[in-house]
Amino acid sequence: MSDTRSALDLAHAIARREITAEAVVRQAVEAALSDPFCAFTRVLASEAIAAAQAVDRGEISGPLAGVPFAVKDLFDVAGQVTTAGARLHLGAPAASEDAEVVRRLKAAGAILIGTLNMDEFAYGFATVNAHFGTTQNPHDPARLAGGSSGGSAAAVAAGFVPLSLGSDTNGSVRVPASLCGVWGMRPAQGAVPLNGVFPFVEALDTVGPFARGSRDLRRLYEVLAGETLTGGSEPLRVARLDGFFARNAAPEAVNAVDTVMTYLGSRAIADLPQAEAGRSAGFVMTAALGGALHLDTLRARAQDYDPAVRDRLIAGAMLPAAVLDKALRYRDHYRRIFYQLFDQFDVLIAPATPCPAPLIEAGTILIDGKPAPARAHLGIYAQAISLAGVPVIAAPLKTHGLPIGLQIIMRPGLEGAVFGLMHQLEDAGVLGFTAPGGRA
Fold it and tell me: Average pLDDT of 164-190?
């Protein structure tokens, strides 16, 4: 187990020379090397220790100097092969430079210790990878960690690193954050650069950070977005999303929303009657654009794909162009409808997942009363938000049972104010990370 202090506390302790960066990074590297949850795909031990020593010599500085982090294995890391979770990329040339967000974190003094497991090509909500293994949930290794950024969430939940990076196209940050009980974020579309990130569906892709606390998440987002957030005390109009976002919700998901709304003293309800259509349009875009991206490789090397991913990509590539065109036109309509909600409310709250982490062996959750594949349906609520392109914080409910999280959905530009609200809820013990085993 590495040092489980917050990223900000670690950075302050290192800056005050109460502990060395090398000691912190060595602990993180040792934890990653003994990772029992299949979170890591690669540990960059020598590079990380050398960078930590440079921090201690004063050669590397910044607001996160000496803080360890890890990245989903679809971010370019100079000198390493970017696998995107795929065996067929193992023989590809190494990246010549870091992805822009990796560069920004390193410029802030943070130290990369490794790369993290994911669903192949980010196509799934489970991190069940036919080639690199299934990432287990640190709260219960018999359960899914979620996906596609499951390794990123599990590494933070297990205490291996205080910060990590994932990506969110349809919920790939929000789903594992919910199941692993950590904080995550889907930034507004275009707020964080995607240079050097292997694409899935560029029309929906975002970079997404993970942390164990809301203040760490805020600072990490500021580094990634290259801005300092302002605001944090102004009153916000908050409502719960009902209808589609209550259907299929397990009692734990309903309770999570109830708990926050009760604390805030709000009974407001926001109606998004086209949520299911929005999810469907995003599903079509994902299938068609994802399939088109891989079509040439599928023709040449189809047998090297994870069969479950391959079949979905082939089906998507076969969709008629007219179907994709209709989905793209609907996206613009849906965004106009979604933004109308912000005329009444500043913040919308919905479950991040319909239930806590399901068992790996079962592989299903209940949708409309029937078992459905978890790999495709854990993101049912997240998918309905993605198409709007708005910022969303994934916030864990403070609980003694299996974790479950919320989507805190906001109008772009209110990130600072909403983070202020998250700090308030975390300080009050309503939201927050609980370590596996119930440790503080």
Answer: 98
Given the structure tokens 């009760």, which residue do they identify? 262
SS3 state of residue 241: strand
Phi then psi dihedrals of residue 90, to 5 deg: -60, -30
Which DSSP letter does residue 118 get?
A: -
Proportion of the chain above pLDDT 70, given as a percent: 99
Whole-angstrom Cα distance, residue 359 to residue 80?
33
At 316 the pLDDT is 97
Residue in 250, 225, 282, 203 with CA at minimum distance from that of residue 354: 250
Superfamily per CATH, domain 7-225: Amidase signature (AS) domain (3.90.1300.10)
Instruction: Please tell me the pTM assigned to this model.
Output: 0.97
Mean pLDDT of 148-156: 98
pLDDT at 440: 44
Residues contacting 54, CB < 8 A, separation 6+: 60
On the question of a common fold for 7-225 and 238-438, the answer reads: yes
- For the chain, the domains span 7-225, 238-438
Return the CATH number of the domain spanning residue range 238-438: 3.90.1300.10
Fill in the amino acid letter for 297.
Answer: T
pLDDT score for 234: 76
- For 140-204, the DSSP string reads EEEEE--SSSHHHHHHHHTTS-SEEEEEESSSTTHHHHHHHT-EEEEPPTTSS--TTB--S-TTT
The rounded percent of the chain whose pLDDT value lies above 90 is 97
CB-facing half-sphere around the CA of 64: CA atoms within 13 A? 31
Q: What are phi and psi of 169, to 5 degrees?
A: -100, -50
Catalytic (active-site) positions: 72, 148, 172
